[in-house]
Amino acid sequence: MLNTYLGKNWVEIDFKSVLADITLAEANTKIPPLNTIGAIVYHLDYYVTIVLKRLKGDMLRSNANNGFDIQTLPSVQAWRDLQEGFYMRAERFAAFVGLLDEQRLTEDFLDQIYGQNIYNIQGIIEHGYYHLGQIVLLKKMIRSGLYHQ
After folding, report:
1. Which helix (H) or strand (E) segment is 9 a member of?
2. Which of 9, 26, 27, 63 has the least CB density, counted as fewest CB within 10 Å?
3. Do residues 105 and 118 lie in contact, with contact meaning Cβ atoms separated by under 8 Å?
4. CA 37 → CA 28, 79, 139, distances in Å?
């Protein structure tokens, strides 16, 4: 999972390298009806946080907005802070998952209807790659001039 975020994986693409040169303006660019790059990063960070808390036994529920309830990032520092928090929480998630034994991985994720813990951990990885692809496409659209605000 951590390779999806910080690099050195078999697909040779990761969030850290893709997001490294995205400006605040690009992170906030809205191409209707798509989400902004900033909103996608916030959304992914939200789900990593929720799944980690649930793996630790917290029964909290996610909100109806699914972690897309972010306003326009107000500053370069806010964009940097979002990215730094995103990577930090991904590292915490990966460290916690790395400590889980096989029995814990095959236990139900809070409730039987959500499947096993391993299924939800795998979901975080797949969810990350899905949105990483969106970010790459948004970045290309914004920079290619295909979209003008």
Report:
1. none
2. 63
3. yes
4. 7, 10, 8
CA-to-CA distance for 8 and 26, rounded, in angstroms? 25
Cβ–Cβ under 8 Å, residues 139 and 20: no
Is the bond into 74 cis (omega within 30 degrees of 0)? no
How many other CB atoms are there within 10 angstroms of residue 19's CB atom? 22
pLDDT of residue 69: 85
* pLDDT tens-digit series, residues 101-136: 999 999 988 777 888 999 999 999 999 999 999 999
Q: Phi and psi for 5 in degrees, rounded to 5?
A: -90, -45
pLDDT exceeds cutoff 90 at 37: yes
* pTM assigned to the model: 0.89
pLDDT band at 6 (very low <50, low <70, confident <90, very high): low
* Tokens at 29, concatenated: 């660019």
Tell me the residue type at 52.
L
Nearest to 69 by CA among 20, 93, 92, 36: 36
pLDDT in tens, 67-78: 888 999 999 999
Using left for φ > 0, alpha for ψ between -120 and 50, and beta otherwise, residue 135 falls in alpha
